[in-house]
Amino acid sequence: DQKEYDRIRDLLRAKYNLEYSTTSGETMQLRWNAVQTIILLTWVPLGRENSSLQISYEAPIPKETDRL
């Protein structure tokens, strides 16, 4: 629910400071830029008692993985 979203948002703000951008409407998406990593927190209400909460980290693939 929204309380869980707020809790995770506050944890991310404590670690990465205020978000870089915010998208709202029915879907709420917050974005942080941390060095070469983008952190996205997305919350979508799906009805009275359901919602979707997603956290994603986008980072470049290290060059060392070319040797795999």
Give structural attributes.
4 strands
Can you walk me through this structure?
By secondary structure, the protein is α+β, with helices and mostly antiparallel strands. It is built from one helix and four strands. The chain has one helix at 2-16, and strands spanning 21-23, 28-34, 37-45, 51-58. A four-stranded antiparallel beta sheet has the order 1-2-3-4, with helices on one face. β3 (37-45) and β4 (51-58) form a beta hairpin. The mean pLDDT is 86.
Termini gap? 41 Å
Strand order of the largest sheet: 1-2-3-4
DSSP summary, beta strand count: 4
Uncertain residue ranges: none
H/E element string?
HEEEE
Radius of gyration: 14 Å
Major beta sheet summary: 4 strands, antiparallel
Q: Specify the overall morphology.
A: elongated
Tell me roughly what share of residues is in helical segments.
10-25%
In short:
A hairpin with a 4-residue loop joins strand 1 (21-23) and strand 2. The protein is built from one helix and four strands; from the N terminus they run αββββ. It has one helix at residues 2-16, and strands at 21-23, 28-34, 37-45, 51-58.
How is the topology of this model organized?
Layout: H1 2-16, E1 21-23, E2 28-34, E3 37-45, E4 51-58
Antiparallel strand pairs: 1-2, 2-3, 3-4
